[in-house]
Amino acid sequence: MESGVSGFAFYPFQVSEKYPAQFIKADITYSSLSAKLKFNFKLSENPEYVALVQRLQEYFDKIKGSATTNNWHVSRKVKPHQTSEDSFKNLVQESVAAIEAGQIEKVVLSRVRATDLVAGFDLMDTYLRLQEVYSNAFVSLISIPETGTWMGASPEILVQVSKERIFKTVALAGTQALTADCNPAKASWQQKEIEEQSLVKRYILNCFKRIHLRDYTETGPRTVVAGNLMHLRTDFSVDMKKEEFPKLGTQLLELLHPTSAVCGMPKETATQFILEKEGYDRAYFSGFLGPVHIDGESNIYVNLRCSQILEQVALTYAGAGITAESEPEKEWLETRMKMDTIRQVFRNEAS
Ligand SMILES: C=C(O[C@H]1C=CC=C(C(=O)O)[C@@H]1O)C(=O)O
Questions:
Q1: Of 27, 107, 143, 159, which cross-links 300 as Cys (Cβ 3.0–4.6 Å)?
Q2: According to the model, what pLDDT value does residue 64 have?
Q3: Domain count of the chain?
Q4: Which residue range forms the structural domain that includes residue 301?
Q5: CB 304 less than 6 A from any atom of ligand 1
Q6: Cα 178 to middle of ligand 1, angstroms
Q7: 28-38 tens-digit pLDDT
């Protein structure tokens, strides 16, 4: 993040040959607010660029307001997979037993669900609808050869470094449905959710401790709305101008990922547990993504509430934090609600 190179980071849960870390260099950026292209190289350096730029601007002018294209990249590495209800619930039970036996403190278990794309499915149209429905989320659509196409509406910032050099991260956990008659400001939370979120907070504070970061601001926890759901969130910020941490963004990105909101505690044991037991590859789900050094700031989000789009099927992913108090049925329903964040937009209806 300190190299000054502008681009878009797309990082998996675990880096491997199959799922490499990706960085799309921002040679050209397009802002829908200004409807303008921005070039991160000197146009006069190469006459070919001048012609290319002219063609691109003409292309953007032409397609503006008529977003229809279904040419997306499909990863050949994935086999469509679906976690069965029984296997997920059994794994919740096994995790609770491992927690009670003191092998782990918390683990985030996830599952995958396959949905057939409806006839006439339009990728760009779906993406624009997702943007409309989740105005408070980080709505993304990424399409990379070999890696495939991912779409999501993440509620969780992992690392933000603003123009003013303010660093931010959050401890987000605990989930309940946002119903029509409920007021988020008056939401009450069970002991289970309070503890689950405080474990994420403790995990972040441990990362701060490891680099001897003492001067930070902590706000919360408070109830926040994320689409059809509510969570508990504590906000942390650091003024990087005051602190002796010029590389804080990168340092904490390395330490935080994967946080206890998507993996567990202790981190290494929880990671092994997930890799051995979940029964499928998370790939880029619960990794991180976002713009780096665009207009002087970086905003990296956790890749949650997302789907991988294949030729005729979308694979939707969701996880739930398991603690000693977890009940299989409740965790199953919680992952279903999380999946609905994006699935309802695919089908353009609530499920
Ligand atoms: C792992 C996910 O959510 C995390 C973020 C907020 C609340 C969570 C929870 O209540 O379990 C999860 O830690 C997901 O959406 O797949």
A1: 159
A2: 63
A3: 1
A4: 71-347
A5: yes
A6: 15
A7: 888 777 777 78
Instruction: Write out pLDDT tens, residues 121-159.
Output: 889 889 989 999 898 899 999 999 889 999 999 999 999
* Residue whose CB lies within 8 A of the most ligand 1 atoms, among 228, 231, 331, for a mutation test: 231
Q: What band does 351 get if pLDDT is binned at 50, 70 and 90?
A: very low
Residue 243 · residue 192 · CB < 8 Å? no
Q: Report how far ligand 1's centroid is from the alpha carbon of 177 (Å).
A: 13
Question: Nearest residue CA, atom 10 of ligand 1?
Answer: 174
Position 217 in a domain: yes
CB 248 within 8 A of CB 240: yes
Bond before 221 cis per omega within 30 degrees: yes
55 domain-assigned = no
State which ligand 1 atom lies nearest to the alpha carbon of 285: 16
**262 CB under 6 A from ligand 1?**
yes
Q: What's the CATH code of the domain at 235? A: 3.60.120.10
Nearest CA to ligand 1 atom 5: 173
261 lines ligand 1 (CB under 6 A): yes
Q: Is residue 33 part of a domain?
A: no
Is the sign of the CA dihedral 292, 295, 296, 300 positive or negative?
negative
Helix axes 85-100, 267-277, angle to 10 degrees: 150
43 lies in a domain? no
Question: Closest by alpha carbon to 287, among 251, 315, 261, 320?
Answer: 261
